[in-house]
Amino acid sequence: MLKRLLATTLAYGLGLSVASAETISMWVRTGIGDSFKEVVKAYNAAGEDKVELTEVPFSELVQKYATAIAGGQAPDALSLDLIYTPAFAAAGQLEDLSEWAKSLPYFSSLSPSHVKLGTYEDKIYGLPLSVETSIFAWNKELYRKAGLDPEKAPKTWGEITANAEKIRALGGDTYGFYFSGGGCGGCMIFTFTPLVWGAGADILSPDSKKATLDTPEMRKAVDIYRNLVAKDTVPAGSASDNGVNFLTFTNGKIGQQSIGAFAIGTLVTQHPEIDFGVTLIPGVDGKPSSFAGGDNFVVTKGTPKLEAVKKFLEFTYSMEGQKIMAKYGSLPTRGDIAGEVLEGLDPRLKVGIEAIAVAKTPYTLQFNDLINSSNGPWATFINAAIYGDDVDGAFSNAQSEMQSIIDAGQ
Amino acid sequence: MTMSGIAFPSLHHRKRKRSGWRGLLYIAPAMALVTVFFVLPVLFTVWMSLHKWPLLGKPAWIGFGNYVRMVSDARFMAALGFTAHYTIIVTIAIFALAFPLAMFVEKPRPLVSAYRTIIFLPVVVGLASASLLWVWLANVDSGLFAPLMQRLGLTNGRINLLADFDTAFLTIIVMVVWKIAGFTMIILLTGLQAIPAELTEAARIDGARRWQRFRYLTLPLMRRTMALALILSVTGSILAFDQFYIMTSGGPQNRMISVVYYIFNQSFVSFNLGYGAALSIALLAILVTISIFQLWLLNVGDERP
């Protein structure tokens, strides 16, 4: 009896404290791994406030968020692909976090490219939430079976192609290479442009006012991928994969693939049976590069739960939060404790950190139109240039369409 | 009783006046629904189409700017061309299958209701679900068609049906026909069943052959039903979106962007709501014109049967 009474009182007390706690609604895109979900889980288990997470398909997050803002149904906060932060800040839809951000003791050691993209007209609207770089992964098991040295990371695309052929020779549905070539602009800017970046070329001019797609370096990169396809080292499904099967590497039948650092976390935690190595993505002339991506944490303008949101972000930046993020594949956003955070974790994550030094992030307000939209010029170009019959036509079409989109946006 | 007796002389007049009001009252709910859910949105869309209306930020009046832009928009023209191409092919395919099916299931024969049910079943699947189902069927690695064709030795290796325009287009046409033909069949069936048996019998006694009976008796009497089926099919095809969005994301190299898909892209990918609204109005005008033309072509509304 006494026990029951006690239990009721306890429940009553708990109920009270829950009622006074806030529930923050937050959106996150699919395909960024589990790191953020795990942080939220830990926060919900420990704190008084709750974070209610909604997963939105990555290809639709921008339009869904924009529509939700227009309809007054926006979440309090959002994990926004960092390349979109300028566009939303420019539209005046995000809360200005400058003062609070600058008061954080570790502000100066937060990932600089994230803060740069989160800054618009000297005000800070976005803070780093997750950092990801693109890297090259190979399946050691398949290397062994194909008679290759499983510990030797390939350094050039010539090596990668030769290895791919040997792995494909194992037959069946084992393939040497994979990429999402069916109009997934986001996948390909992430994994394919490092080939030309490493060689010093880019698809946009530094002020992003000119499309510079048609370069000798890009022609070389396209040839490399075309050759991989022609030699039957890539599964036929790649030609129509719009990003849904981006992580095909996790099925264990793909010898090599450029993936993201998040995928390291996914592989380690969910596919422990796959023995893999990672290295930097070589450029067309061997010099490596990478795409520094990830998400910024942004707050919808005018949310009544600003204080609760800040508290949650501080938890994410704490040692505990950073450790959870890192364990599931997101690289530390705080440079000052990065070493400590990665201690004892999978050593392959360090390759992801190394990539930051050679990585690039494009800055353009028209990223969705130019690159990510599955009907945009970049996504169309990739499919036409690698799988089509008319490479020259693919180059000239994409070049002119990109330029016309840039011109129309000015 | 006495009161009504006194009021009698003026009752007739009052009744007529009242019944006018009563009629209005009866259709008021329908009118309200049409006004709120059709007329007002259309008017608002017209209003939006006269603005540069970004999804985020303030709209600005630009008059007929969006309509001027539309005329020289090559991508819109390409979308119109593709939609017309698709509409013609899919409509012919549906009728070519639905008409024989309707004639087949009209005659009393054993198991006819089972046939009807089986043919009609795909209709009750949503178009989006059907598209997803077929994405899987057409998947080159884990699907049905490609491995099956390889097994049967029809193709050398597995063909990725959705990677090439022709095969992807064919897959979508087959999917839509599978999904829609049953519905068209039911409509045509009601038309066939409405033809009096005496007429067919009389024609037969007069010596009309099978083809003659079909050409001079069945077809003319089916005109109204055909008009309904045709308009439903053409309108549905012109408004096609789900199958292209789900099955091919606009197809190999953007070659399967239908008009509605283009409107969606303009509105919710490029955030030009104003331009999207203008395109929608243009599409509405095109649809109304085509429907009027079809009714005229099939001579519907001139006479009452």
UniProtKB/TrEMBL annotation, chain A:
<dbReference type="GO" id="GO:0015768">
    <property type="term" value="P:maltose transport"/>
</dbReference>
<comment type="similarity">
    <text>Belongs to the bacterial solute-binding protein 1 family.</text>
</comment>
<protein>
    <submittedName>
        <fullName>ABC transporter periplasmic protein</fullName>
    </submittedName>
</protein>
<dbReference type="GO" id="GO:1901982">
    <property type="term" value="F:maltose binding"/>
</dbReference>
<dbReference type="GO" id="GO:0055052">
    <property type="term" value="C:ATP-binding cassette (ABC) transporter complex, substrate-binding subunit-containing"/>
</dbReference>
<dbReference type="Pfam" id="PF01547">
    <property type="entry name" value="SBP_bac_1"/>
</dbReference>
<dbReference type="InterPro" id="IPR006059">
    <property type="entry name" value="SBP"/>
</dbReference>
<keyword id="KW-0813">Transport</keyword>
<keyword id="KW-0732">Signal</keyword>
<keyword id="KW-0614">Plasmid</keyword>
<dbReference type="GO" id="GO:0042956">
    <property type="term" value="P:maltodextrin transmembrane transport"/>
</dbReference>
<keyword id="KW-0574">Periplasm</keyword>
UniProtKB/TrEMBL annotation, chain B:
<keyword id="KW-1133">Transmembrane helix</keyword>
<feature type="transmembrane region" description="Helical">
    <location>
        <begin position="225"/>
        <end position="246"/>
    </location>
</feature>
<keyword id="KW-0813">Transport</keyword>
<protein>
    <submittedName>
        <fullName>Maltose ABC transporter permease</fullName>
    </submittedName>
</protein>
<dbReference type="GO" id="GO:0005886">
    <property type="term" value="C:plasma membrane"/>
</dbReference>
<dbReference type="InterPro" id="IPR051393">
    <property type="entry name" value="ABC_transporter_permease"/>
</dbReference>
<feature type="transmembrane region" description="Helical">
    <location>
        <begin position="275"/>
        <end position="298"/>
    </location>
</feature>
<comment type="similarity">
    <text>Belongs to the binding-protein-dependent transport system permease family.</text>
</comment>
<keyword id="KW-0614">Plasmid</keyword>
<keyword id="KW-1003">Cell membrane</keyword>
<feature type="transmembrane region" description="Helical">
    <location>
        <begin position="168"/>
        <end position="189"/>
    </location>
</feature>
<feature type="transmembrane region" description="Helical">
    <location>
        <begin position="117"/>
        <end position="137"/>
    </location>
</feature>
<feature type="transmembrane region" description="Helical">
    <location>
        <begin position="76"/>
        <end position="105"/>
    </location>
</feature>
<dbReference type="InterPro" id="IPR035906">
    <property type="entry name" value="MetI-like_sf"/>
</dbReference>
<dbReference type="InterPro" id="IPR000515">
    <property type="entry name" value="MetI-like"/>
</dbReference>
<keyword id="KW-0472">Membrane</keyword>
<feature type="transmembrane region" description="Helical">
    <location>
        <begin position="24"/>
        <end position="50"/>
    </location>
</feature>
<dbReference type="Pfam" id="PF00528">
    <property type="entry name" value="BPD_transp_1"/>
</dbReference>
<keyword id="KW-0812">Transmembrane</keyword>
<dbReference type="GO" id="GO:0055085">
    <property type="term" value="P:transmembrane transport"/>
</dbReference>
